[in-house]
Amino acid sequence: MTNPKNIKTTNTWDFQDNIKYTTKIKPGINKQTVELISKTNNEPKWMLQLRLKALEIFKSKPMPNWWPSLKKLDLNKIYYFAKPEGAWDKKTWDEVPENIKNTFDRLWIPEAEKKALAWVWAQYDSEVVYHNLKEELKEKWVIFEDMSIALKNHEELVKKYFSKSIPITDHKFAALHYAVWSWWTFLYIPEWVEIDEPLQSYFRMNKKSGWQFEHTIIILEEWANAHYIEWCSAPKYDKNSLHAGWVEIFVWEKAHMRYSSVENWSLDTYNLNTKRAIVEKNWYMEWVWWNMWSNTTMLYPCSILKWDNSKADHLWLAFANTWQNQDTWAKVIHIWKNTTSNIVSKSLSKWWGINTYRWLVDIKENAINSVVKVDCDWLILDKNSESNAIPKIEVWNTDSIVAHEASAWKINENDLFYLESRWITKQEAKAMIVNGFLSPIMKELPLEYASEMNILISMEFEGGF
Fold this sequence. Notes:
Elements: E1 21-23, H1 31-40, H2 45-60, E2 83-84, H3 98-106, H4 109-116, E3 119-124, E4 127-133, H5 135-138, E5 143-146, H6 147-153, H7 155-161, H8 172-180, E6 185-189, E7 199-204, E8 211-212, E9 215-220, E10 225-233, E11 241-243, E12 246-251, E13 256-264, E14 269-279, E15 284-292, E16 296-299, E17 302-305, E18 311-320, E19 325-334, E20 340-349, E21 354-363, E22 371-380, E23 386-395, E24 401-409, H9 413-420, H10 426-442, H11 447-460
Parallel strand pairs: 3-7, 6-9, 7-10, 8-11, 9-12, 10-13, 11-14, 12-14, 13-15, 14-16, 14-17, 15-18, 16-19, 17-19, 18-20, 19-21, 20-22, 21-23, 22-24
Antiparallel strand pairs: 1-2, 3-4, 5-6
């Protein structure tokens, strides 16, 4: 397939920052870089040993051969650690260095905190630059710290959960992540604590040929309830960047966790993530995803329904635009009886974009009376784009129910004619139809996020499709 020429693409947040870095390393991954990261973060000996073991596993494992091609991604040209000058975990917005603060001001982070959020967490390249937690949550013994600080303040708790849902041997990029991970979120919510407001984190990858390998651990004890939102962006440099973040979620009996992610990378970014939740008895895990703009995305969140009456929802929206390859996957493993999963995927493909959606549903022998519903829809906006489905459903007992439906369609000319007859321009009519197609996912985001996503979608369609 030949890429189109002379097509201009714009990204609302595709701006670059002139930042000085206090820690400078050469590109490429080696023992010295791994030791520098561990030393800079003042980590315990066991973490350094885990990093070095992961580095050896990374060197020994081949590149995955079932993913989209990564031949243009040169791992030896990536910077695996970058410390912005003046960046550290600030407690007030005024303390953040002015040049970094300007970036997040343009991204509306402080304003979002004022209006709706229980806390805001901002990471810039390899460093957390801002962190704020409401006092009433502190009083309830909620722990919200960056991983590197939690490793010092709550070492045994971190050690108990770190790498327990995603082992360092999972695949080549898992090993790379564990060798060079840096900062991000440790969230612990005690039993019976319910947080009504969404909790937000935002990370910005600014360095040219840079990376972010942030590591998130979320723990909800019994009867806890929370909604956590991530928002990501990166500028365009014409040099490949790599994002490989990890999320490990552990939610205990009768708790409810919603994890939302809006990933708005640049066309230079390879977005390779692994995210996994272990689901205990009588609890509920929701994943809500929005993926757009990266060069190549490979993102495969997994829910392991480990005990009776547990439930997982995977709600997914992916947009493949010019030169983009979105390869996404929902994976649900039903281990015990009366478990339920619901997978809903919506994808858009435009201007030679490629969308591939994989899903694996694995219902084990003991998972009797389990119920699964899979619903996948693709909207293809031109003659040259692709949407692919690669399902895999394994049922190892005769007492479970699986329902699967999928559709692929284009914009209906009759719908366009009807809207245009109401004095709506053709371009506006198309945007309205697209937003209607996406609404089952959009309505799951808080209002301020859904409004911004509608604006982004409208801007994507400027210039026609």
